[in-house]
Amino acid sequence: MTFTVGTILQETALFFEKRGLDSARLEAELLLSYILGTERLRLYLDHDRPLTSAEINEYKEVIRQRLSGKPLAYITGKKSFLKWDFFITPDVLIPRPETEILVEKTLEMVKDQATGAILELGTGSGAIALSLAHYLPAFQFDAVDISPAALRVASENALRQNLYERVSFYGGDLYAALPNEKKRLYTGIVSNPPYISSQVIPGLSREVREEPLGALDGGPDGTEMIKRIIERAFEYLAPGGFLALEHGHDQYFVVEETAKKAGFTTVLSYQDYAGFPRVAICQSAK
After folding, report:
1. Domains annotated on the chain, with CATH
2. CB-based burial of residue 97 (10 Å sphere; 0-12 exposed, 13-18 middle, 19+ buried)?
């Protein structure tokens, strides 16, 4: 039997549906466009194009990987976030749609400022810092991660997006990675830290457990890293600066309490697309 682009997509989408994959047709298309080295739109234009035996075998292999639990982004090596595609490896957390809200709320906080400096803690792929850098061309950015492998991915994304001169990367544990002259510098600090409680990790889906443990595990109650970030934020924020955090759906009150104890006067909460509290903006009086 000769498979065309159209017939193999139809069969693969049905197969994925039977195996319980969400967005079965989309995943089938993304995997095939990856194998063919083309854009998704081209699949529709080339609907009747026959596939070679080599292409079919390669497609079968990535289907096998996907059904074994390997995330799509780790197979294709990329993930869309806001307006940009980011290079992704198993060394970094895969950017989520909810994290786009974190970027959007950060942008709202600086909409009236001509220039400034922003620090991202736990940059991973660099998706947050680099997206902000696209939107804020007059700002400078620093991005920290404890993982050398993650920093290599983030640096590669900065190079690919022509932002390497505007984003500086530091390796180390949160604020300890930064030189002393960075204190009291930042207009804002932004972070999507690990916030899943340790005991929940084993029960996560096989796909999520493929992601780096250090980017998921937030300690016994999931707020260990969040508290560390909040408690030292004032050392690095300029007067009137803000802290923007993504957090677990049941962690807002811990974030609020910790932030108020640290000296923040206002803590605003924003919901994710499912209606759960997901982003907190901590502000201090000017």
Report:
1. 5-68 (1.10.8), 82-283 (3.40.50.150)
2. exposed
